[in-house]
């Protein structure tokens, strides 16, 4: 039986149960801790996360995958404490974020092989001095994928082949998933062990179907992020993949945080939109981290049900698909 590494140790893939494949306990944007307004409360974050895990457990969720990249505030000890207190099986990752936000300078100038060796060291020995081992490899790319994105993804691919770990991706604006697949395949990765994430913003169904046709899982893993794309569009696209015979390649999640460490909004605000943005900020923060993690069940599932999806198919997307993503 295949195993998956959680922050508290390995489990059989048969024990994963209903799984959210792309969520976060804590996100911290690079440099935010230098802001005099930074006041991250670790205890409060743990309490919020434990409460969120309890809510998910009421809906049957047993595993929470947190593919937070190294350079976006990854904190394996925080995840381990939440797992201990909540009983939720939590999986963390190794891997850098996309180049316009992450990839520290030192690693930008390393080769793909050197990056792979770093990832493999974490996979074999644990993250830093924590002893906590990642259970997946995160990749990310911008729109379009940049030079450093491609080099880091190649490093991740080398590490994935050697370690056998699952790859979970971030696609900025739902673009570049095909490029990610090309790089992974070029280095020998089994594309059936890759989740190409954050689809739903693109309206090019030929591109999205192509991801599944090439054997990867398609991540509709930003359910609830209406500031990026309407959930009705996501629901329509999920049903289009079902109709195309790809129900077994869809993974659902929310990319929702339990807590955001950054004291200020971590993205640039377009010139002239400051006043409108301030009015929208409560809604934006609600979608990013403030509402319960149960939105997928209380709000997104009804959209699928109204389009004719059987509950057994929804449950399979949360149970069978992640089990095959992590176990082959």
Short description:
The chain has 328 residues and is an alpha/beta fold. The chain is 43% helix and 15% strand. It has an 8-stranded parallel β-sheet, with helices on both faces. The chain has a two-stranded antiparallel ribbon with strand order 1-2.
3D architecture notes:
This protein is α/β, with parallel strands linked by helices. It has a single domain (3-327), classed as TIM Barrel (Alpha-Beta Barrel). The chain has 11 helices and 12 strands. Helix 5 (147-163) links the parallel strand 7 (136-141) and strand 8 (166-171).
List the helices and strands and how they pair.
Elements: E1 3-6, E2 9-12, E3 19-20, E4 24-27, H1 42-58, E5 63-66, H2 76-86, E6 89-94, H3 105-108, H4 112-125, E7 136-141, H5 147-163, E8 166-171, H6 177-186, E9 194-196, H7 205-213, E10 217-220, H8 231-243, E11 250-252, E12 257-260, H9 274-290, H10 295-306, H11 311-327
Helix pairs in contact: 1-2, 4-5, 5-6
| Biggest sheet record | 8 strands, parallel
Strand share of the residues? Answer: 15-25%
Average pLDDT level? 97
The helix-and-strand class reads alpha/beta
CATH topology: TIM Barrel
| Terminal Cα span | 10 Å
* Outline: globular
> What Rg do the Cα atoms give?
18 Å
């Amino acid at each position: 039986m295949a195993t998956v590494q959680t922050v508290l140790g390995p489990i059989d893939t048969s024990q994963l149960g209903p799984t959210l494949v792309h969520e976060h306990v804590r996100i911290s944007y690079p440099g935010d801790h230098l802001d005099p307004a930074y006041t991250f409360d670790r205890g409060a974050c743990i309490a919020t996360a434990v409460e969120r895990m309890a809510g998910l457990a009421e809906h049957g969720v047993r595993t929470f995958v947190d593919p937070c990249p190294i350079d976006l505030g990854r904190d394996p000890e925080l995840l381990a404490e939440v797992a201990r207190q909540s009983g939720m099986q939590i999986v963390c990752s190794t891997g850098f974020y996309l180049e316009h936000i992450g990839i520290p300078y030192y690693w930008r100038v390393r080769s793909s092989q050197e990056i792979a060796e770093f990832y493999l060291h974490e996979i074999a020995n644990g993250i830093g001095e924590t002893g906590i081992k990642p259970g997946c490899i995160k990749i990310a790319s911008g729109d379009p994928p940049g030079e450093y994105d491609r080099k880091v993804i190649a490093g991740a691919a080398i590490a994935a082949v050697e370690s056998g770990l699952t790859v979970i991706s971030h696609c900025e604006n739902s673009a570049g998933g095909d490029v990610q697949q090309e790089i992974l395949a070029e280095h020998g990765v089994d594309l059936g062990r890759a989740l190409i994430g954050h689809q739903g913003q693109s309206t090019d169904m030929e591109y999205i179907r192509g991801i599944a046709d090439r054997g990867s899982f398609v991540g509709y893993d930003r359910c609830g992020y209406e500031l990026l794309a309407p959930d009705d569009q996501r629901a329509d696209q999920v049903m289009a993949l079902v109709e195309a015979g790809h129900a077994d390649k869809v993974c659902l999640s929310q990319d929702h945080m339990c807590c955001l460490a950054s004291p200020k909004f971590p993205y640039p605000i377009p010139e002239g939109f400051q006043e409108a943005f301030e009015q929208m900020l409560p809604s934006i923060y609600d979608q990013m981290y403030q509402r319960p993690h149960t939105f997928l069940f209380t709000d997104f599932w009804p959209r699928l049900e109204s389009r004719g999806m059987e509950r057994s198919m929804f449950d399979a997307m949360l149970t069978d698909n992640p089990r095959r993503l992590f176990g082959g």
